[in-house]
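Page 42, continued from yesterday. The earlier attempt failed because a stray header line got pasted into the input along with the sequence. Redoing it now with the clean sequence only.
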Amino acid sequence: MARKRRKSDTKGKPQKGSADVTSPQAPVNRQAEAASSSKRRIWLAALIAGAAGLASSLVFLFLDRAPTPQSVSPAAYVGSDTCAGCHQSEAKLWNASQHKVAMQHATEKTVLGDFNDASFDHYGVRSRFFRKDGKFRVETDGPDGELTVYEVKYTFGVDPLQQYLVEFPDGRIQALSLAWDSRPQDKGGQRWFHIYPNEEIKHDDVLHWTRLNQNWNFMCAECHSTGVRKNYDAKTDRFATSWSEISVGCEACHGQGSRHAAWAREQQSWWPFGKREDPSKGLLTLLDERQGVTWPIDPQSGIGRRSVAPATLRKEVETCGLCHARRASFQEDWLPGQWLSQTHVVEPLARTTYHSDGQIRDVEESYNYTPFKQGKMFAAGVTCSDCHEPHSAKLRASGEGVCLQCHAPDKFADVKHHHHGGVEPRPTCISCHMQTRTYMVVDPRHDHTFRVPRPDLSVTLGTPNACNDCHRDKPAQWAAAAVEQWFGADRKGFQTFGAAFHASRTDQADAAALLGVIAADKDVPAVARASALSELASRVSSANINVARRGLSDPDPMVRIGALDMLANLPAAQIWPLVSPLLVDPVRGVRIKTASLLAAVPAARQPQADRAHFDQAAAEFVDAQLANAERPEARTTLANFLAQRGQSAEAEAEYKAALRLSPQYTVAAVNLADLYRQLGRDKDGEDALRIAIATSPRDAALHHALGLTLTRLKRPDEALAEFQMATELEPDVPQYAYVYAVALHSGSRAEEAMTVLKNALTSHPNDRSILSALIAFSRTNGDAEAALTYAQRLAVITPDDPNLTKLIGELRQATKPPAR
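This time it went through. Structure tokens are written below.
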């Protein structure tokens, strides 16, 4: 990142053709030369003596002025052109990369789409693409649903699609949902398409291109430009977003380069004094994990083994994860090489994004960070640049050649391994071990877990597998039998957690036990252990609380955060002794999560030794929410925290701010109504919920919350109608059915209540609330046998509940035939 040496760097140096070089053509006067030589020796001796004194003074001067850590100037961005001055080969690779063109000004050179008066129809809206006054224009539906002409200011990406950005007067930059398919025409490209092809996205939908969830400033900028500052003003609801470089430049990965550039200039200087010995070379981190590492192939297994064990903190993976992870930023001062959880909330194996065995789904894009970290390659020490040249982002070898760097070709490229001899085209390593899922209509992405095909899990868990991705006309049982014939019946694989997550997602009785095993097993990938801990939040018991305790001290911050998630439903005062040490955790994401869990404990009841630590972590939590003050989620999260701290007026203001930002963000309305409940203002809560329902009439949570509010207002008939609506809108949420049944039973409609509960139990056979209600209602109806049946089912799920054990004994006694 150093600049080229300037011409002024040569000042004072002897130059070719300077006066002290005797011309070979000049006549020689020997006597004059001898006298001159004598004078030169005298002057030279004096000069040396003077220089020695001067040098000694300068040495002490430089030593006296050696920079201290406090005097080092803050790192600043210098731009990729500065870096290219020294790193020319890397710059050449980067200039041909997609990172270089991640975002560009819209010009004749950068725009790929057809703006020659082309048109595209989507659910009755005809959009038109044209040019006028040397600018690219689009006529499409605006925020009011009316056709409006907009200028395209920027391009976004190049392959396999290019999107276009429109800037609004308030500083918002919005991504059009109409994109250009840049693939060749024979691959289906060279056309306009809508990124939600099968949905009508109306102007008031949050997914409409003018709305919140298509906002570049929050959703896109951090990863398509360098040195981004959102600069959102919450008072005026305006952006003044800036960047140091419009695309993904050198400093997007290496961090601000000013110190490195200064170090490089020092090294090039002719002046020998004052040069710093700096092992870091002025860089914010050294991405040197591959330095000195080899992968000798084991002759028996045919697999390369890393010559040095990998570090716990994998600097390169965390750095790439900034943009190749599904995450949300809460702090703009990201630094390369640190845990991503320092500045971002990272999604673990979420239900909406991953199948139970960790395979990526095609609903929400997972990116590569979490898939990679749950895989065998990551565990073995493989890092991103082992496979990808980091400056071009291209593979280090074409096709499966990149795999054969570490996997012996005579073993793994052989038909005895892939069992597809005579098949054209032959399956590759990638087709079997890196299945693809397509996002944004035309963009296939590979699963970076590098898993073995498991059609046997497809049979038991309903997950997909690579074999049936190709053999779609065959059942999973057929593929499982073939794999067993080739490789034997013992098909463990590396991802052993599928059964546990499947049990949790389907409310199986053994879910808590299976999750506990996964969470406690150090051989399970950390990201899976973190996910298992989070899944245990609704199943905390004395039997698994120690799993959370161990997770709180795990070296991986995602596991510590997962352990905190597990404890989130317990009273804050109860868990204070357990989690309060994490208020000073070295990772910011852990600290703010801890503060949010302990927020309900008033300052007067906090241990004196912890108060300052809590206050500092709480301030970081508030700052993290204010960093995304343009988002209703952040404002609602802040409001929740303030409500727990007893700051009701401030919490109310934040909930209302969230609803102004997005009336469709119904969580804010539900929580605002609950705040009003705490304040004894249920009528205000009713008003807030009815306003929200007018905007989102099919939101079940709003109807459920309104039913609770109307119950407190002693309007049971209206409440019952709302509970029924919530249950009908979302029949898969057992809590809605439970509350509806309780309301029916309270209204002397016991038979209907039992029907609702029995229907809910069919879909949720192990739901504790449903089973508890069935036990209670059956006893009330005098049906001890039915109550005993339900109690025994509940005992399978909660075997250590002494009250339930006692109840079962009483029910058994009640069902005994009378003695004769």
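Notes: Confidence is low (pLDDT under 50) at residues 1-70.
Reminder to self: strip header lines before submitting.
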